[in-house]
Write a structure and sequence with these properties.
Blueprint: E1 9-14, E2 21-25, E3 28-34, H1 39-48, H2 50-59, E4 73-76, E5 79-88, E6 92-96, E7 99-105, H3 113-144, E8 150-154, E9 161-163, E10 168-172, H4 180-192, H5 201-210, H6 214-224
Parallel strand pairs: 1-3, 5-7, 8-10
Antiparallel strand pairs: 2-3, 4-5, 6-7, 9-10
Helix pairs in contact: 3-4, 4-6
Length: 229
């Protein structure tokens, strides 16, 4: 029944169902139908719903990231660098013109190596983020005539930065994987909240004054966010 359709699906019959349900689950179409539902009816339904199915399959694609022990590349400052790891007597991250290498202590159990490598990379990038964002905030705040009270580095999954009513601005360490011009946009965005604690038209005009390319930076983050581990 699926030969003429541009997608695959799983068909599940149930005697308790009274209607047909289409659902996208982990990037796959699942059809739940009452027992005895005809193939012709399902075929016509899928043809009618084809656009809906394709749209939601596209938007629900699950990005499966390779384990760290199997990676060959890493994104830093918007550039894909060669990545490797080796067993060593002590753990450290080495960055040079050949790329990025994590040395994993031989005492680390095989089952823990992947997590150990991830923690080492996160620690390395967090340290870089501390220096980068302190400098950027100091420079940009002076230009924008705003006064943040502190800078902190966070590890959030659903936001790139923050600004609270006390004047503390925060930035996600994962931004060190983005190009510097994108990370600078987030700095200006959060510092702008010291003037406008909202996303009003006045706020966006203030952002644009100090970062005219802010829409390009937003597009980069939206397009590449799945690559920032």
């Amino acid at each position: 029944m699926s030969e003429t359709l541009p997608f695959n699906y799983e068909l599940i019959f149930s005697a308790r169902r009274r209607s047909v349900q289409l659902a996208i689950v982990q990037g796959q179409l699942k059809i739940r139908a009452p027992t005895g539902t005809s193939a012709e009816f399902l075929q016509q339904l899928l043809i009618q719903k084809q656009d809906w199915v394709l749209k939601h399959l596209q938007t629900s694609k699950v990005t499966i990231k390779p384990s760290w022990v199997n990676r060959t590349q890493i994104l830093i400052s918007g550039e894909l660098l060669a990545f490797s790891w080796i067993l060593a007597t002590k753990g450290q991250v080495i960055v040079n013109e050949q790329g990025v290498q994590v040395q994993v202590p031989m005492r680390v159990d095989i089952a823990r190596r992947d997590r150990y490598i991830e923690q080492q990379i996160q620690h390395y990038l967090t340290n870089l983020a501390e220096v980068f964002f302190q400098k950027q905030v100091q420079q940009q705040a002076a230009l924008m005539a705003v006064t943040p009270t502190a800078v902190r580095i966070g590890s959030w999954r659903r936001r790139w930065g923050c600004c609270d009513s006390r004047g503390v601005v925060g930035f996600n360490w994962r931004l060190l994987q983005a190009p510097d011009w994108v990370a600078r946009y987030v700095v200006i965005h959060e510092l702008s909240h010291l003037r406008y604690m909202n996303h009003s038209a006045a706020f966006w005009q203030f952002v644009k004054t100090y970062y005219p390319e802010y829409l390009a930076a937003q597009r980069w983050l939206k397009t590449h966010q799945s690559q920032l581990f």
